[in-house]
Amino acid sequence: MLWISNADWVALQLTLKLASISTGLLLLLCLPLAWWLARSDSRARVVVEALVAMPLVLPPTVIGFYLLIFLGPEGWLGGLLEQLGIGHLAFTFTGMVIGSMIYSLPFAVQPMQNAFQAMGERPLEVAATLRASPLDRFFTVVIPLARNGFLTAAVLAFAHTLGEFGVLLMIGGSIAGETEVASIAIYNHVEAMDYAAAHGLSLFLLLMAFSLLLAVYFLNRRFKVVGVA
Hints:
- α3 packs across α5, α7 packs antiparallel against α8 and α9 packs antiparallel against α12.
- The chain contains twelve helices and no strands.
- It is mainly alpha-helical and 229 residues long.
C-alpha cells in the first residue's frame, strides 16, 4: 500500500516552497536579461547565451560543487557573510534557492527570450506612432503579447525545480525539515531499502510533473507558445 509519512509531507512542502520561491525570483530577475538577449546585437550576446544554457549540459554535481565552495565559510560570498556576522549559505534553504535558480536559469530565460523575439518590431512601432513611451510600450504591449512565454517559463522552471537532486544535495545536504526535499528523501528511502515510502513520494512527483508538462503542451497547441530552444 502506498502512503506518505509526515516526514515525507514536510519534504514535499519544502520542495513546493523551494520551487515557488525560485520560480518567482527567476521570472523577476530574468525578465530584463531575456529582453536584452532578444533585442541586443552586441557581440557579448553569444557569450551570455552560452552562460545561460550551461546548466543544460553541466553535471548537476559540478554546479553544486562550485556553489558549495562559493557559498561555504571559506568561499568568496560565504566568507564575506561570515565576516559580516550573517553566516555562510551552505546547507541552508537560502543556499538551495540560489542553487535552484542557477540550475533552472535556461528554463526561465529561453521561453521569455523566444516570446520577445517572436512578437517582432511591428507592435512596438505602432505603439511608438501613438506616442507611447518606451516604458508604456513595454508594459502595455510587450508584456501582454509575451504573457504565454512567461507562463511557459514559470511552468518549466517550477517543474524542473521539483526534480532537482544533485545540486540540492551538494549545496543543501540532507537535513530533515530544513534542506531535505522530496528528491533527496526518495534517495534516502532507497538507501534504507524502504521502497514503499520511495514509491509513494515518486508517484506524487511523477503525477505532478506530468500535469505541469501537460499544461505546457496544451498551451503550446492552444496559443502557439514558444518553448525552450
